[in-house]
Amino acid sequence: MSKKIINVVAAAIERDGKIFCAQRPEGKSLGGFWEFPGGKLEIGESPEQALVREIKEELNSEIEIISYINDASYDYDFGTVVMKTYHAKLISGNLELLEHQNSTWLAPDELDTLNWAPVDRPAVELLTKK
């Protein structure tokens, strides 16, 4: 039986040369792992539309997408997550943690100090090489 495919988008939000990192809440799927914030695409949405909506819902903030970073996928026990990650900048809001338990801003060369969710790791590798 094939695994469920879950299409998601994520934003590496940059400000003053640092990138916003969010920690998933304990007790939820992948609790405690760090990620670039984002979420699932809804029917009829483009990845970019989904990302702007998800950041508004999860962080009560507005972003502008600057560029595409990568596509990655990872087979978890609950399904295969296929994720598009984008480089973005904050337009308004303060990135309020409505769904995450913690956050931090790190320089690109510091990103690998966190315990990232597996599907986020390829984007972390690309961002640390810049």
TrEMBL record:
One of its GO terms (molecular function) is 8-oxo-GDP phosphatase activity. The keyword Magnesium applies. Residues 3-128 form the Nudix hydrolase domain. GO terms for biological process: DNA repair; DNA replication. Pfam families: NUDIX. InterPro entries: MutT-like, Nudix_hydrolase, NUDIX_hydrolase-like_dom_sf, NUDIX_hydrolase_CS, NUDIX_hydrolase_dom. Coiled coil: none annotated. Keywords: DNA damage, DNA repair, DNA replication, Hydrolase, Magnesium, Metal-binding, Mutator protein. It is an enzyme of class 3 (hydrolase). Its cofactor is Mg(2+). Gene3D superfamilies: Nucleoside Triphosphate Pyrophosphohydrolase. Its EC number is 3.6.1.55. It catalyses: 8-oxo-dGTP + H2O = 8-oxo-dGMP + diphosphate + H(+). It comes from the Bacteria. Belongs to the Nudix hydrolase family. This is 8-oxo-dGTP diphosphatase. The lineage of its organism: Bacteria, Bacillati, Bacillota, Bacilli, Lactobacillales. The gene is mutT.
